[in-house]
Amino acid sequence: MSLRFLPAVALGRAVRVAARLRKAGGGSAVPGLVVNRVAPGFLGATLSSFPEGLVVVTGSAGKSTTTKMLVAVLEAHGKRVFTNPSTANISQGLTSALLERASLTGRIDADLAVLEMDEGHGAALSDRFRSRLVLVTNVVTDQIDRFHDSEKVLAMVGRIAATATGTVVLNGDDGLLARLTPTAPVRRFGVTAEVLDAAPRGLGYAETAAERSDGVLVEAVRGREADVRIDGAATTVALPAKGVHYAVDAAGALAAAQALLGDAFRRDVAQGALAAMPPVFGRGEVVTVRGKRVEFVLVQNPASFQLNVDELDEGLEQVLVAMGSDVRDPSYFWPADASRIGRAIVVSGSKADEIALQLIYQGVQVVRIEPDLGAALDHFLALPDPARGMKTIVFTADSMRRTRSHLGLAR
To answer: Where is the Lipid II isoglutaminyl synthase (glutamine-hydrolyzing) subunit MurT C-terminal domain (predicted)?
Structure first.
């Protein structure tokens, strides 16, 4: 790195201070927007500056959890890792995250970087960096207002995978990913046929077993733990939340960690790291607000909606469902069967009427529709503690951010 980025870094930091003075906890992407405009070479140069390389985690679903798992395992092995903990995975967010740790010359004191990257933004940036390892979680028709179909997503993750000089780690149960032919060696992870068959309504994004891994394989899932076979050796690992999809995330993270660490990889160290890892915010996270314990369940597409709803405890008494402006076309979620919710005591968000209609058609009792999310949250938290189960909020990404802001929780 050189002094040529000093003015841009100084400007970005000044913008960050101004944004936070204007709104506490806000404006996190603004510094990145400014720096990318005045110094377009900063992002690529900084990504390429880590002594042990750059690791990219991309795909339609599971990026945030897989990234956090991989970072936890690497740090437990003594690696100094730079990552984007706020799940800022688009170009301006990545640049803002780099500014948080970069010196005035643009250097970051870490051994390697492990970054979650949005498929579209990562593909657009792919000619600016080379990566040591790329992990692709899966390909689904996600964010249909942006990506339209899975073929487009496959092309984008293919461009990101082409940046890898060391290893490409792929979900071996994703039929579309089986069509990728990166120049770097490929390592796969997946689940056994028994796990796939036992998963509620299938894995959603992994319904065609294209090429099963003999490296890291999920053999069984029991609540918040999974049996994983790593190169023939069985290991039980803890999961941050219930569900086969979290076990698949763990398998991907373990496969990537093993590829990066080589002979230094230790299963017991990885096992301890995953056991100590808290949930990524919103994904099975349990918080205490206003004296009430509440579980947050984030759903972002039909597959994650189905998988997460299927893992809800039966007979929950108090569930709030919120769909926000991030869902441009609520009919996108109709293929998911939400009947397990049973009773939604409040339905909220800017798309409250649309998600309430789906719930009612699927046999869910909807007690109250309150489009004002703040009012809905206040009502929900004021209710007496349920006699059975925990207060549970099922929300999409926009409603998650608004919920956390309204309740004064960290972003």
So the answer is: 298-379
